[in-house]
Specification:
Layout: H1 10-14, H2 32-38, H3 45-48, E1 54-56, E2 62-64, H4 76-80, E3 95-99, H5 113-117, E4 123-128, E5 131-137, H6 147-151, E6 157-161
Antiparallel strand pairs: 1-2, 3-6, 4-5
This protein binds iron/sulfur cluster (3 copies).
The site of one iron/sulfur cluster has 14 residues, from helix 6.
Amino acid sequence: MKPTAINPGRRNFLTGRRLSSPDRVRPPWTRAASVDAACSGCGACVPACPQHIIALDESGRPALDFTAGECSFCGACADTCPEPVFDRAITAFEHVAVIGSSCFAARGIVCQSCGDACPESAIRFRPRLGGPAVPELAADRCNGCGACIAVCPAGAVSASTRPLEAAHG
Ligand code: SF4
Ligand code: SF4
Ligand code: SF4
């Protein structure tokens, strides 16, 4: 499965540089088609986000940077947008989090930061002999908030297309 996002780096976000990754995570309650069709590039959603995770990409469209923080689903981006880009009736995100092979547990280092941060208790740790417990992510519980991406010290978590068997909403 090909990850769909997102490691543009916190520095880019803080310095106001635009995101350059070819893959995007768009704001909640939007889809690529609605952003492409209706976003005027006004940028109103960028300062509206209290989590400071929205930046404009090189096409002037909003993209999320989960390395800077998680989405709290506050709705400020949707409330601020003057165009028909957001639809609060749809599932906020199509992606879920995926834990990659660079997780510290694979290198014998104890870490449970992602599990501690997850508001949905979607990450459990499976004990094993001879090494630290290994995180396992239940995609059907994940709401895509990105909290686990923001806190992972190994950069091991990314957003990826929701598996078909876990699709809902
Ligand atoms: S819902 Fe709130 S926290 Fe999430 S991207 Fe929109 S403004 Fe930011
Ligand atoms: S926060 Fe990152 S390094 Fe730590 S257990 Fe989770 S995936 Fe592994
Ligand atoms: S994206 Fe949010 S809900 Fe999903 S596993 Fe990470 S912290 Fe939990």
